[in-house]
């Protein structure tokens, strides 16, 4: 995890990351771009697992572990975050919530770290359900309308990313089942998977049946299509840090 105070990356590395074929690298590129352009000293993205009380931290830059864990807990239930989560379409900063600087989160968690402003962007699906959120904080107080527009342009990218992570969490595939699914996406037969992973055909068949059942699909072709649409079975996604 990058610590607060680390140098921001240069534009060349950011541009390279943002066109990467790997979603995680593109996300990091977008985060770095926002940090450079808006002056944010920290940034985190978290997703809300189905039926979970809090959030699951995916990536944190510039926060201490303790602060990142706090900000990705069940903050949605805290009084000082009610305004932020009441309108899923807005990007809300401290000035939009006058009581926030003196709240526990503002006064006891963020201000001791040197932050004087920050924003929260709720990520939601088409039905308005919260699927994740992004938070950033900064030492300087200003957060302009231009900065809001710049952050807003990244909303679809972040939303798609956390939606895929939610789908992966919902499926609850084991590491071996993810491996099997990745090979199904490549079009390998059970026999070819058996040879690739040095497993018996019976074991492979059992894993395939479990994958189909967990994904709620009838056959391996449907599993491959479903996995491709949701980004399941891709090795580039890191295991999210779950927060109780």
From TrEMBL:
Gene3D superfamilies: Winged helix-like DNA-binding domain superfamily/Winged helix DNA-binding domain. GO terms for molecular function: DNA binding. Keywords: DNA-binding, Transcription, Transcription regulation. GO terms for biological process: regulation of DNA-templated transcription. Residues 166-231 form the HTH luxR-type domain. The keyword rRNA-binding does not apply. The keyword DNA-binding applies. Signal peptide: none annotated. InterPro entries: Sig_transdc_resp-reg_C-effctor, Tscrpt_reg_LuxR_C, WH-like_DNA-bd_sf. This is Helix-turn-helix transcriptional regulator. It comes from Mycolicibacterium litorale.
């Amino acid at each position: 995890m990058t610590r607060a105070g680390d140098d921001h990356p240069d534009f060349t590395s950011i541009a390279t990351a943002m066109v990467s074929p790997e979603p995680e690298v593109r996300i990091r590129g977008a985060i770095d771009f926002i940090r450079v352009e808006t002056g944010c000293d920290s940034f985190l993205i978290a997703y809300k697992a189905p039926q979970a009380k809090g959030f699951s931290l995916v990536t944190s830059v510039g926060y201490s572990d303790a602060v990142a864990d706090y900000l990705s807990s069940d903050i949605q239930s805290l009084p000082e975050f009610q305004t932020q989560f009441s309108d899923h379409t807005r990007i809300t900063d401290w000035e939009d919530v006058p009581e926030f600087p003196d709240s526990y989160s503002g006064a006891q968690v963020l201000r001791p770290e040197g932050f004087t402003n920050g924003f929260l962007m709720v990520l939601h699906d088409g039905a308005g359900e919260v699927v994740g959120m992004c938070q950033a904080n900064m030492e300087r107080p200003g957060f302009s309308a231009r900065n809001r527009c710049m952050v807003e342009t990244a909303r679809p990218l972040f939303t798609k990313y956390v939606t895929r992570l939610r789908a992966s969490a919902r499926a609850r595939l084991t590491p071996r089942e993810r491996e099997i699914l990745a090979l199904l996406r490549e079009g390998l037969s059970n026999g070819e998977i058996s040879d690739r992973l040095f497993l018996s055909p019976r074991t492979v068949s059992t894993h395939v049946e479990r994958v189909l059942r967990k994904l709620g699909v009838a056959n391996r072709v449907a599993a491959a299509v479903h996995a491709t649409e949701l980004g399941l079975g891709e090795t580039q996604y890191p295991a999210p840090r779950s927060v109780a």
